[in-house]
Amino acid sequence: MLGLGSALVNCNNLSNLCLNLFELKIGSKGFSDLISSLANCSNLSNLSLEIGNCQIGNEGILNSASAIAGFANLTILFLEISNNQINAQGALSLGTALSNCINLQILKINLYENQVGAQGALDLCSALAKCTNLSNLDISFQKNGIGAEGASRLGFALANCLNLQNLELYLGDNIGPQGAQGLGQSLASCANLSNLTLCIDKGNQIGAQGVSGLFYGLANCFNLSNLSLFLRGNQISSQDNSDLFSALGKIANLSYLNFRVCMNYIGDKGVSDLGSALANCTHLSKLILDLSENQIGPQGVCDLGSGLVNCTNLSNLKLYLSNNQIGNEGILGLGFSLQKHANIKRLELILMNIQINDEGALSFVSLLSNFPFLLILFINLYCNQISIEISSKIVSKCLKSKKLIEKYIIV
C-alpha cells in the first residue's frame, strides 16, 4: 500500500479519487500507510475508499487518525470499512479525526459487521457535530450491537449537526420497541432534516409499539418531505396497538413516502389505520407501499384504497400486495378507489398470489383503463387463479391502450 500511496502523492492535481481494495487484506499497516500518503494530496476534495474485510482493526484506525484529520479540503467522503474488527475505541478515534475535516458536506460510512456498540456509535455521531458544513450523512451500524440504548441516543447526537438535511441510517441488532420509539423521539431534534431513510429491517423486533412510537417522533420533524422507512419482518401486529400508523398522517409536509413493511402481521385493522393516516398526507406525490405477506383481506385493501382517494396530488403510485387474502372483492374495491385518482401518471401493482380469479382480474384491468392521464403501467398478477384465455385478454387489453407509453404485464 505504501507504493500505491506514494505514487498517488505525485498526482498533484488529483481532486477526485475512488479506490476499491475490498477483501485485499491490507491490514492495519497497509491502511495507515495509504491514508498517510493520501493526506499529502492537497487538492483532494472527493474520496471514496472501499476497504471492507481488509483486517484493518482498531490499530489501523488509531494509527491513521492524525492523517485523516489532515484532509483539509475534503468535501465528499465515502468510507466502506465493513467487517474490519473495529470497536468503540476505533469508532471514537474515527469520529475525532473526521471532526477536523471541517469542509465535509457529504459523508457516507459503512461500518456493517464491526463491534462499535452503543457507545462507539454515539461517540462517532457526536464528533460529527463539529463538521459544521455537513448536510448529507449516510451511516450503517448494522450488526454492531447497537441495541435499544444506542438507537435511542443516536438522534440526539445527530441533532447537533445543525445543517444536516439528508440522513440515511441503517440499524440492526434487536433495537426492540424501546429503541425504535427512542430513535423517533431523538430524531425530532434534527430541526432541518428534510430527507430521511431509516432501515430497521428484520432482526430488530420493534413490534407495534416501536412503529407507533417511531411515527409519533417523526411527526415532529416539521421540515421532513421525503421519508423512506424499511421495517420488514419486525413482528408488527395491529392487534397489539389500536393506532398503529395514525401519527404518520401528522407528518404534514410529506411529498414522498417509501414504506416497506412486508412480512409482518398488520392485517385488515392495521391497513385500515394506514389508509386513514395516508388520507391526511395531502401533499404526497409519490408513494411506494410494500404490504406483502401481512394477512390482509378484502376489507383492509378497500379501506386502504378509500384513504388514498384523499391524496389528490398523487401522480406516482407503487403497491406491493402479494401473498395476502385479498380476493376479487378486495381488488375490485381497490380498483374503484384508484380510478378516482385523476392525476396518476405512473402505476405499478405487484399482486401475486392474492386469490383472484378470471372475473376479478379482468374486471380490475378494465377499471384501470379509466385512468385519464395514466402513461406508465406495470402490473404483476402471477400465481393467481387466472386461465390462459383470460390472461391473453388482459395482456391484449393493456397492450392495445394508446394512452400508455410504457406497459409491462405479467399474468
Helix and strand sequence: HEHEHEHEHEHEHEHEEHEHEHEHEHE
At the fold tier of CATH, the topology name of the domain at 1-145 is Leucine-rich repeat, LRR (right-handed beta-alpha superhelix)
Determine the CATH superfamily of the domain at 1-145. Ribonuclease Inhibitor
Fraction of residues in H or I helices: 25-40%
Number of strands: 14
Strand proportion, as a percent range, falls in 15-25%
Strand order of the largest sheet: 1-2-3-4-5-6-7-8-9-10-11-12-13-14
Backbone shape: elongated
Regions with pLDDT < 50 over 5+ consecutive residues? Answer: none
Sheet with the most strands, sense and barrel status: 14 strands, parallel
Report the structural category: alpha/beta
Mind telling me the C-alpha Rg? 24 Å
CATH architecture of the domain at 1-145: Alpha-Beta Horseshoe
GO molecular function, one term: small GTPase binding
Transmembrane segments: 361-383
Protein name: Cyclic nucleotide-binding domain protein
Pfam families: LRR_6
